[in-house]
Amino acid sequence: MEGEQKRKVILSGMQPTGGLHIGHLTGALRNWVEFQSEFECYYTIVDLHAITVRQEPAKLRQWTLDLAATFIAAGINPEQAHIFVQSHVPEHTQLAWVLNCFTGMGECSRMTQFKDKSQKYPENVNVGLFAYPVLMAADILLYQADLIPVGADQKQHLELTRNLAERFNNLYSPTFKVPEPYIPKIGAKIMNLQNPTKKMSKTDEAQLGVLYLTDTPEQIKNKINRAVTDSGSEIKFSDTKPGISNLITLYHIATGKSIEQIEQEFAGRGYGEFKKAVGEALVEFLEPFRNRYKELRAEEGYLFDVLRKGAEQARVVAQKTLRKVYKKIGFVML
Ligand code: ATP
Ligand code: LTN
To answer: Using CA atoms, how far apart are residues 200 and 96, in angstroms rounded to an integer?
Structure first.
């Protein structure tokens, strides 16, 4: 707006590759919600990224809509933030192609995620997986985003994005904003309940170790009861007690009580009693989310409206940036 200072732009994305868990809520979505009143926010469901690993079509479709409902149920307001599906804005793939032509093979092959995923799926090491971070750079640079909230595992991709932006700006003229990562404080990382030295992950096979946002109260209590704990019996937050520390973190999230308060509350009480309290607190904490999610998920018409509007708004900005890029590299503009 004229006279008004332009708001900073935030962009982030999530892959529709499974149901979201409590770690996504605390490590990502809660921050996304916080940002929306102050910044211009773009939150995208990155289905193009999802297919770098083989996906079942029916599930991909379902997970994409699940994710839209999850964003809204978690508190992202579609009137404030732009929620859209990556494949609905074709400029992402168009800019990604251009950026591919400015990215060295070596830069992509150094990416830890590429190395990890090629090892995990050796039968399908495809070109898309290799170019994954370039598509991510396109997601970000199209919107001239200032700040990118991501997990620590994405830091390397952000570094590549910054390098590509600077490279293009230097070769032509200032075109892209060079974005900054926003990596939330540690403590936001939730570990797998069955293997507390590994982070909770939506593509994990150990379902019992993952606390999904849509789990029923019975499932939540059962998973907490069966969570792997450490030797000893003290409820104490410590590096040598990853299982109990993870449960303390979850209890802290559900109740807002500080770690010290929790340790005091459970001093001299056993693991069994603590687990019962954690389970109950989580059931109560997740209840409003679950109800809202169920309502939203039943209203596909509404979800489509949100995604249509989000894509239309995103395209206006994306087209503007892409046109600039095409012009600068010498494409004939009609
Ligand atoms: P995948 O299992 O498919 O690799 P993922 O479960 O790690 O996926 P992403 O889609 O990569 O999920 O994560 C989106 C964002 O959610 C991350 O950038 C990170 O900030 C947050 N996140 C994911 N898992 C956790 C976790 N266990 N604890 C805290 N935050 C998490
Ligand atoms: N690679 C990210 C998801 C992602 C993303 C983005 C995050 C795709 N495009 C743009 C931030 C900005 C992940 O796996 N968490």
So the answer is: 30
236 catalytic, yes or no? no
Whether residues 267 and 310 share a domain: the answer is no
Question: Would you say residue 195 lies in a domain?
Answer: no
**pTM of the predicted protein model:** 0.94
Give the β-pairing of 82-85 and 9-14.
unpaired
Q: Is 275 in the pocket of ligand 2 (CB under 6 A)?
A: no
Q: Which domain holds residue 304?
A: 9-187+299-329
* CATH code for position 268: 1.10.240.10
Q: Tens of pLDDT along 101-137?
A: 999 999 999 999 999 999 999 999 999 999 999 999 9
Residue 151: per-residue pLDDT: 86
Q: Which residue has the higher pLDDT, 250 or 206?
A: 250
Q: Which of 155, 157, 180 to mutate to test the pocket of ligand 2 (most atoms within 8 A of CB)?
A: 157
User: Is the Cα torsion angle 119, 125, 127, 128 positive or negative in sign?
Assistant: negative
Spacing, Cα 98 to ligand 2 middle (Å): 19
What average pLDDT score do residues 138-155 get?
95
With tokens 């994954």, the residue in question is: 132
pLDDT confidence of residue 3: 45
Q: Vertex 120, ends 115 and 123: CA angle to 5°?
A: 100
| Number of domains forming the structure of the chain | 2
Spell out the residues 6+ positions from residue 216 whose beta carbon is closer than 8 angstroms to its own.
none
Least confident range of 154-158, 205-209, 290-294: 205-209
> CA–CA separation, 202 vs 211, rounded Å?
9
